[in-house]
Amino acid sequence: MNKVKNSVQAPLANQTAFDLTAPIDIQAVIGAVKLHQDLLTAIDMLDAREVLQHAYGIPGVTDSITLGRVEGGSVSSMYNGVFIGRNAAGKVVPRTLKVYPVKIEEADEPERYRRTYITEVRGGLYDGGHPFEVWLIAHVLQIASQDLLNVLFTAKYDSTQISGSANTDIKHAFDGWGSIAWDEINAATPKISTALGNMYATGVMTVQNIGDQLLAMWRSRPETFRRKSSKIFMSADLVDMYNDWYEAKYTFVAGVGDEEGHPLYLRGTGKKCEIVPVYGLGKDSQFVILTTQQNMCYGFDKESDLRTVKPFNSGNPYWFTMAGKYVFGCQFASIHKSEFCVSDRRLTPAFIAVTSPTGNPKEKGWYVKSGDDYVLTTDTSVPAQNAPTYYEWTI
User: Fold this and answer.
1) Rounded distance, CA 119 to CA 121, Å?
2) CA 273 to CA 92: how far, in whole Å?
3) Closest Cα to residue 32, out of 127, 131, 106?
4) Is 85 buried (19+), middle (13-18) or exposed (0-12) by CB count in 10 A?
5) Which residues of 192-215 are buried (b: 16+ CB within 10 A; e: fewer)?
6) Which pLDDT score is estimated for 165?
7) What value does the mean pLDDT of the chain take?
8) CA-CA distance, 84 to 77, in Å (whole number)?
9) Which residue has the higher pLDDT, 197 or 13?
């Protein structure tokens, strides 16, 4: 009985070798991709999974979907012999998750990959593996996932960036979680603030106080929240700062207490609060989101869209061209204090102009603008005449 060889691991006897001296056969490429479709992984399951695995994915969203959580309410009271139906289970505050299209494009010359990745070339690193065309598409999906990972918190949809003749950065393609929260903080009538209880004033966090401040932030939540498993999302640099604080404060003893290595959970929460590093936040960002996985929602249409990039004939027979498109969007199901909290730090640190400057600008660490750059001032006093605009680096 003849055994069927695994087409991924065994040499591709039925495949035509990738001939760099001949024009690309686009039909053969499409056929190879279809044959090995099972090797392709969805964008949200590649690099972006580092964050998205801690969120709640909602498929089947083609334009928008209304989310909402029941906030407040009580249905229990002392029995007095009469049912009058005046108690309520709370109210649902609707929030809209909207998805926007994101495109993927790639054009490359296979010659650049002759000895490294083309499996059919003698002496290649992956001789006898799956076709180069499939590897290249998988590689493009990997890059697309990295692009998505870097803007999950900072993307801000901007319809003015839409152009038929130019590619605009993915950071303008949809609204990221951080941008959504920042808009609510800065709205004419803020929906996130310390007064509402869904913002906690951590102040500037340092390696000396970060662990205490984050734990205080978690402990400021209602008991109903602290009973749940939660996530605290912060920049990778802030996670490093937390690790430094942790290692300076606690000594690891083999077999006792905490695990060796970087903490996975916020110390003092009984492993109720998991630390999640996020990427793409600005330098020195101390913007922190504390919530639950079910509250961090992202939407898309079909999973197949997230792992489909289609080769096509561009008119240049020696170039490998491909394109894809998927829809994506983020939202919180609720920003009520019982479900959600942010730190009182800026989403994106920025140079902010100093109003009515006095004293010694150099000692205060103020900056002045030089062209497009900001440089530390050498002024030891504010000039009485023609004083420059001073800036503070504000986090």
Assistant:
1) 6
2) 26
3) 131
4) exposed
5) beeeebbbbebeebebeebbebbe
6) 76
7) 85
8) 11
9) 197
Number of neighbours of residue 128 by Cβ within 10 angstroms: 12
CB contact at 8 A, 341 and 217:
yes
How sure is the predictor about 123, in pLDDT bands with cuts at 50, 70 and 90? very low
Q: At what angle do helices 132-149 and 26-35 cross, to 10 degrees?
A: 70
Could you report the per-residue pLDDT of 243-288, keeping only the tens digit for each? 999 988 876 555 555 554 457 899 999 999 999 999 999 889 999 9
DSSP annotation of 287? -
Alpha carbon 276 to its chain centroid, in Å, reads 10
pLDDT of the residue at 33:
78
Q: Please say whether the dihedral angle defined by the alpha carbons of residues 29, 34, 35 and 38, taken in this order, is positive or negative.
A: positive
Per residue in 197-241, pLDDT tens?
Answer: 999 999 999 999 999 999 999 999 999 999 999 999 999 999 999
DSSP per position, 15-39: SPP--TTS---HHHHHHHHHHTGGG
Say if pTM beats, i.e. exceeds, 0.85: no
pLDDT reported for residue 70: 64
Taking 50 as the threshold, does the pLDDT of residue 1 lie above it?
Answer: no
How far are the Cα atoms of 67, 140, 267, 292, 329 from residue 152, in angstroms, in the given order?
19, 19, 26, 16, 9
Q: Which one-letter amino acid corresponds to residue 174? A: F
Contacts of 171 (CB under 8 A, 6+ apart): 151, 154, 155, 156
How many other β-carbons are positioned within 10 Å of the β-carbon of residue 225? Answer: 21
- Cα separation, 154 vs 145, in Å, equals 15
Handedness of CA 154, 187, 284, 342 (dihedral sign): negative
Angle between helices 236-249 and 210-219 (to 10 degrees): 100
pLDDT value of position 12: 35
Rounded CA-CA distance 368/378 in Å is 9
